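ugh ok fine here u go
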Amino acid sequence: MAKHPRERLRTASVNNSQKELVAVAIFALTYLLISGRRLKVLPLNRPAAALLGTVLMVTCGIMTPEQAYRAVDYDTLVLLLGMSLISAYLSLAGFFDWTAEWVLKVARTPQRLLLYLILTSGVLSALLVNDTVCFMFTPLVVTVVVRGQLPLLPYLLALAMSANIGSVCTLVGNPQNMIIGQLSSIPFAKFSVSLLLPAAAGLGIQFAVLSYGFRMPLALASIKPGGGSRHEINWSLLRLTFGVLTLLFGCFFAGFNVAWTALAGATLVMVLARRDTHEVLKLVDWHLLLFFATLFVVVEGLNSTGLPDRIYSGLRELFGVTSTTQAWNLAWFSAVGSNVFSNVPFVLVAGKWMPGFVNPELMWKVMALATTFAGNLTLLGSVANIIVVESARGHIEVGFWDYGKFGIPVTILSTIVGMLLLLAMG
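structure:
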């Protein structure tokens, strides 16, 4: 006997509710594993946790395999691969070793070393992915600082925080900016012009906070001679890689497709470098690529239920009606959201809300600024922080408050000043 239309409607409603509950449960489990430390019951790292969430979304019927394939933003993966290959060739050329050595050589006082490290990390993170800069620089900074008998904590914080702050001013500086670039279609040059001053101001604020907070240890310390070890540099490979990198940024500013331009440049270096490509491909962060690919699926699984849209509809009035009010409210909402869910997942979810704002392009820039600067709020606020702290674990244990008492003021001050500059530029 056929069901009555009302009964069929009620059954469909129940099924949708169950589907939504399952999707939320999978999302919550995935991000619990991503944001927290490895659990003894499920000892999974971030990529493995996201992969688990992806498989559950498909096997539990939230998404079909075809929908999962379509959920992946392949342009973001292509951009990550291209920039990772460029970074790999710079590493093989000895650039990161040489740069760290040069900074330590020209810095004659601990305070000046702190400033140079902040500037170097900030600038390089704008040109390359911030996580890569932290990964390459941390062992070198630790070695030289320890040998020079300097306090390690201020330099570790300087490296991590400046990598986060400096990365905000380009669409290739960090993963969330890459996603924002693909979703918003904001021209590379236009984005960089808007975020350059906020990034510079943030680095200045960070230096002021750290130099004041560590004024006594830095005043009592002195750089001992012979702190570093010599590293050979492959000048021909370095010239080739930097030549291609310069060409890439010229193409970025000219409006070329950022993702495929980056991959084309990386491929050009690969062809002209005449190096064993196995050696290069081993340096690519394949875990990060897997993490992003599976993360797209998990977030789209949640989006498919319509829950994020309903949450936004309920909160929409709280954002205000003017462009300025919406910008400030989105900034603080993004800062909190990116620390609760992590910045990349938050951008993936909140990106769907942008068309509903008065000035969507400004809101994209606000979200880039807030989610990036919010990475400095806590020790677990960004992958860059975790990389630095974990890499230095054999020399120092950095506690949550050890980081937070500097990260909190840096985040609040840099976000306020950055927002004022961003709004002033329009």
